Amino acid sequence: VRIIHIGRKDHISSSLRTKIEEAEKKTKHFDKKYLVIALDYGGRDEIDRVINRIMNYELRIKNNESKMQNFPLRPSDFEGRAEFRIKNLEIGRQKTEIRNQKTEINNLNQYLDTKDLPQQEPDLIIRTGG
């Protein structure tokens, strides 16, 4: 069984994070069955992280930069259901305009926490907390 963690690793203790990373490393060669542990995972948080990954990627391409800082996004920056349009965003002193950049739902999979899984939809979810 391959063990994979999804969620925010930066919010869990370093000792637990180390144990999770060791388990992932020891089981990374397994490819038949997967145990996905969603520790400190939230759907809305993942959406926020996905949008920021996409925005950082698009801005790196536009500005030909290798690294960008994360920045806060507002609901007014997006329009539409299966796609979004990015309006003007201020990053530090630099103003960057990105207009009519559309991302289809199918392309979002590459930014999800489950992007490395062969099957991105789980067979079984056991929820232990509220």
TrEMBL record:
Keywords: Transferase
Transferase among keywords: yes
GO biological process, one term: polyprenol biosynthetic process
GO molecular function (one): ditrans,polycis-polyprenyl diphosphate synthase [(2E,6E)-farnesyl diphosphate specific] activity
Domain of life the protein comes from: Bacteria
Pfam families per UniProt: Prenyltransf (PF01255)
Protein family according to the UniProt entry: Belongs to the UPP synthase family. Z-FPP synthase subfamily.
Protein's name according to its UniProt entry: Uncharacterized protein
Origin species: Candidatus Roizmanbacteria bacterium CG22_combo_CG10-13_8_21_14_all_33_16
